[in-house]
Amino acid sequence: MSLPKTCLVDTNVPKTANLATQPDPNSDVPDACVLACIEAVEHVIKMRALVIDASDEIFDEYRQQLSMKGQPGVGDGFMKWVHDHRHGLQDSQRVNITKNGDSYEEFPTHDGLHDFDKSDRKFVAVAYAHVNKPPILQATDSKWWGWKDALAEVGITVQFLCPEYVRTKYAIKMGK
Question: Looking at the DSSP assignment, which residues form a beta bridge with residue 99?
Fold first, then answer.
């Protein structure tokens, strides 16, 4: 899989990468998906490819779900890297977004995005506000599968690291 020069990283990517060292007996995420997430996290760190918001809303979400110690998992290492390097990223990689109720002024208007998950709107707002509309890396959240076409219509690409898993989960949730 080809990974982008710059991207946003949904929190479930480093969380899924952590399954390599912190297995969850209730998880049905395949090993290939965990490996894809590890590779994505390592790519983002090596290439300094991360795009985040300037107000640290994405960082704060990472901090709530990953270890600031940077261990024991690869995803926790990503958390520490973001903590240590987020202010050193290029200005173009720290995007200003404006909170507007439970959404953002930069969140695109599209009928297919009306019910978009409130907690994930920051990722879309950052991608949409960025001049290059960088892709959003997504691992296991199947709701995004249902929004991918509407997002594409407003110029946002979702790069699914585990497309078979997500498509199957989405079909089950939708009763298809």
Answer: 104
Q: Nearest-5° angle of CA 166, CA 43, CA 106?
A: 65
What is the gyration radius of the CA atoms in the chain, in angstroms?
15
Distances (CA, A) of 150 to 6, 76, 133, 145, 147: 21, 32, 14, 10, 5
109 burial via Cβ count (<10 Å: 0-12, 13-18, 19+):
exposed
Write the CB contacts of 84 (distance below 8 Å, at least 6 apart in sequence): none
| Mean per-residue pLDDT pooled into runs of 10, the chain (176 residues) | 94 97 92 98 98 98 95 96 96 96 96 96 98 98 97 98 97 87
Q: What is the pTM of this model?
A: 0.96
Alpha-carbon distance of 20 to 176, in angstroms, equals: 31
